Amino acid sequence: MRKDPAGQQVNDVGTAGVIARPPLLFLGALLLGLGADRLLPSVFAVPGRDLVFWTVGGCLILIGVALMAAGIRNFFRAATPVPTNQPTRALVTTGIHGWTRNPIYLGMFLIYGGIGVAAHSTWVLVLALPLAILIRYGVVAREEVYLERRFGDAYLDYKRRVRRWL
Hints:
The protein is mainly α. Helices cover 60% and strands 2% of the residues. It is built from six helices and two strands. Helix 1 runs parallel beside helix 3 (103-118), helix 1 (22-39) packs antiparallel against helix 5 and helix 2 runs antiparallel to helix 3 (103-118).
């Protein structure tokens, strides 16, 4: 067993083996939802003032960008890569990661939802549920198994202290 530069034990040098890169999953769902809106306009479209939808959507997007930026900044400070197809070098548990274990994905969901609200896209919002299930089981669950294998007790302690999402 070796130690990373922060002195944490490292057991494994592989990757999490997620089903696909998360940004591509979000982009795919967004494009599918926007395309479905054009081809199959929803009968559940919510009437309202565009300014309200733009304001709410814009706020969700800004909060999402801030969460993502904070999470990415923590990864850069710890000298560990953000992409899921590269081995994790350090367990990041401080900053925004002390509040949620997945601030980058949480930020992506807020951006995704904000775009859906701002665009009045019922289909984008409907696809948020299957996307959440896909991210939860195809990405996050695999990352958690990988991090537990890689960092052992340090990760298990982190999981006990910090919630997965909120």
